[in-house]
Specification:
Oligomer: single chain
CATH architecture of the largest domain: 7 Propeller
CATH class of the largest domain: Mainly Beta
CATH superfamily of the largest domain: YVTN repeat-like/Quinoprotein amine dehydrogenase
Structural class: mainly beta
CATH topology of the largest domain: Methylamine Dehydrogenase, Chain H
Helix content: under 10%
Strand content: 25-35%
Length: 243
């Protein structure tokens, strides 16, 4: 876990080394004291980095300041001039100029839940692995345009369950969340705990695991609800969804 300016960063799932030896770790930083419970005060995508000669990790890339915020940043690849970020919760890939720190291009609706990305530097191609979509999607490293799609597996999970699993971690539909800021998985990665202690205006509270929670009332962080549907209003308050 990396601390910076009162925020906490976590949920690192990958570590990438650049051509000059710099390490990059995409992650989500969290403001655990959620002022006014506003939807855009809680989670932010960042990319931490540490150069070979450095002794401290820094948060250098803040992609939410440039485009509609990537959600659940998952993995990056880096060449001598550009960093490419694949984000699982917003189904997109963002190319960032290493010198200016501004975006070169932003490819949206790449596929369902990008979970890995590889760069073929000689052919200037990016290969994106989508976890829910179970595709390998080839993008142009110059423009982000899709070149081809290859289905590599078939998910035997019933379609309604697979759909729910995808929506749990996705933030692209405004009916569920406003401006791609929030999804269930940001606080409950893989349905578990985030290791943070949150302050919603009452006493500080730990994130609870959701595994088996539906059969273990009382529910919610205040433990005063007896049905899972009773969490609806609280979810709408945080997500600022339209439905």
């Amino acid at each position: 876990m990396i601390s910076n300016a009162g925020y906490f960063a976590g949920f690192q799932r990958s570590l990438t080394v650049g051509p000059d030896g710099t390490l990059y770790a995409p992650q989500t930083r969290s403001d655990t004291v959620v002022g006014g419970r506003t939807f855009d005060r809680s989670v932010f995508p960042v990319i931490a980095s540490v150069a070979p000669a450095d002794k401290q990790v820094s948060l250098d890339f803040f992609p939410d300041l440039w485009v509609i915020p990537p959600h659940r940043p998952r993995e990056v690849v880096v060449d001598t001039s550009t960093l490419y970020l694949a984000s699982a919760g917003s189904d997109d890939v963002l190319a960032i100029d290493l010198t200016t720190r501004f975006p070169k291009w932003h490819a949206t609706q790449v596929g369902q839940e990008p979970g890995g990305i590889v760069l073929d530097a000689s052919r200037r191609l990016l290969y994106v692995l989508t976890l829910t979509g179970q595709e390998i999607i080839t993008l142009s490293a110059h423009t982000g345009e899709v070149q081809s799609r290859l289905r590599f597996a078939h998910d035997s999970t019933p379609s309604h369950i697979a759909r729910g699993r995808y929506l749990f971690g996705n933030a692209t539909d405004p009916r569920l969340t406003k401006d791609q800021w929030m999804s269930c998985a940001v606080c409950h990665p893989d349905g578990d705990v985030d290791g943070h202690q949150w302050d919603f205006g009452e006493d500080p509270l730990d994130t609870r695991t959701l595994r088996g929670a539906i059969a273990c009332a009382p529910l919610h962080y205040t433990a005063h609800l007896d049905e899972i549907q009773d969490t609806y209003e609280f979810t709408r308050l945080l997500f600022r969804n339209t439905r």
